[in-house]
Amino acid sequence: MSNQTPDNSEPTLPLLRQERENVVDFGGLCPLYYAPMHYPTEVELYEPSFDPHSAALHENSRQPAATVKVQVPLPCGHFNIWRPLHDRRAPVAARLARFFVGSAALQPDGRVVAPNNSTWDSRISYSSADDEYYENGHVLPVINGWRHGTLAARSLFRKVEHDWMMTYLAPEQGNSHQQPLAVWRFNYAESRRAVERFHAVLGFSLFAESAAVEWCVRPLSSRRFRRIPIHVLTPEEARYFSEIGSGDSGESHADDSLEQRARIIEQYCGQILAYRASSNEYNDYVVHSVPALAADLTQYVEGEYGFELAVSFVPASEGPDGWQKAQVARQSLHHPISGRMREGEDALSRCGLDFRIKLRDDIVVPPVSVELTHALTATAPEQRLCMDGPGCNFTICVRDPENTVGSLQPPIGAHEHVLRAGSEYFAALLESDMAESSSKQVELEGMPYGPVRSAIYFLYADSVPREESMDLNDWIVLLDVASRLSIPRLHQLSQARILAEVVPDTLATLQDPSDEDSYKVPAEYPDLETIELLQGVAADTGAHDLAQALDRLVAYYPIEVCENRIRSSPVGEFVPPPPHHMGTHDHDPGIRFAVGRAQGPFGRGPFGHHDFEIEGGDPHGPVQMPIMAGPAIHPEIAPGFAHAGGNHRG
User: Fold this and answer.
1) pLDDT tens digits, residue range 197-214?
2) With a threshold of 0.85, does the pTM exceed it?
3) Residues with Cβ < 8 Å from 155, sequence gap 6 or more?
4) Which of 126, 641, 160 lies closest to 338 in space, CA to CA?
């Protein structure tokens, strides 16, 4: 664990270090399939005096568990491919509103809505004490079992120390042929919202110098994982982190301590902070991550629709219990999370893993500026000014090259202070010593009259005339005018409308999944010529957000097609394509994958006669699912989709 910079850090685990063939290659990982688990409509909640962890008390208690039905808004997207993250609605018993003190809203129909009051659009928290995942700051388990919340996992288990009352994820004892690994996947492409911020609590503990835990992250549009560095605080730095009990931080003033702490966190942005704890009679070397401190990992995934986060373990090389020396999500059994509704998000601060994502629209349209609002209402607060209206003191003439009459179009009347507040071009013109500034008149050469008039009208009305009848070309022309007149809000709005014109609501809308032929042609996808044309338009008009959105579209379209195929395909068995069909467009066989319950570690599934392996030999466990992503999703974008290898034995 060195204090290296995050720029050139490759994972040490070969499986994570290798470059993938393309963005839909699973890189040797074998995703585990679990039936999609929606946000619970009913969850058992216990009274404060009731101990949910005591089975005997649960059976004999006269206090029945309360059943709550929850309605929670969530963002669109998918967690680990199969688990949906979208708006799901379910009624809530009004009498249980007290469990949502401060955040619940009692509806006229008796339902209770528990809104997402978090500053994060998406939040997934895992508590090893409960072995449950929680979503969006609500203390209601959405996934039971740590493995059920991973995309892929191997050679790991949840260790419970009943003597020390601690629990954590650790490598399996006696395993030497596979390096332990867990991967989580987040994809918000369905909502067409990109990652603005990503913070994560990645709790870990090491009890030997030879033991190690390595965290890696990969944007879904990238073919490589990047290692997230870990910085071990020096004793001097640790003084400013009261949560690690360093003890002497009280010598400094509180304000100075907070300032120093903020400087340290900023200095090591993009790294996980840890500290060296005091040794004890059992361990000479002890390192813990700083409790509940979320690392700012935005730099790795900013502007992406999704990413994967992986953790690999290196057990200690010395001692009989070396497997136990590297731990993740270590928590006390005395402080579980489940059912503690009154604590709300405070309870989730005890979670060993906490992924927090803030999303933003592809193209953000800013609100009307305060300056423009003031300019429109300064003279008559009860009545807004209007274009060509009374009091106009500035004239705009347009020499339209497309004007077949050959004369100027009717001049446009405007107010000087409105133009100054809404247009950077006019603000600079009016501040200059040019003749137009003193004459209060300007002639615009080589610009279309109609879009110019629409742009000036937009400053007054905050809307575009006949917007519903405008097509792609109209918006492109208006974008050019907004760029030349430097009207920021109209510039962003035009970019958003252009993107909406060429991109469907979802990146990849499949046809009938039972029809193999429907996989041959991507549905509702703009052709590459249109994309290239718009990229040129974006470059000419300074539309950087549009350019980035188009780049994301090209990168994530094959990913969305791949995931949608997996989710939409009829449950069947995995059948790899014939070798001579690989890489061709006409014979793309689509996706096949095995899923079901088998009898024993190598049983026969209910959907075919081929064998497939069940992890750990558990007849009720997850299926290790070999996946093949067909190569012909879009030959220009994804020339070859890779087979992600697995345990198919047919």
Assistant:
1) 999 999 999 999 999 999
2) no
3) 171, 172, 175, 178, 179, 180, 181
4) 126
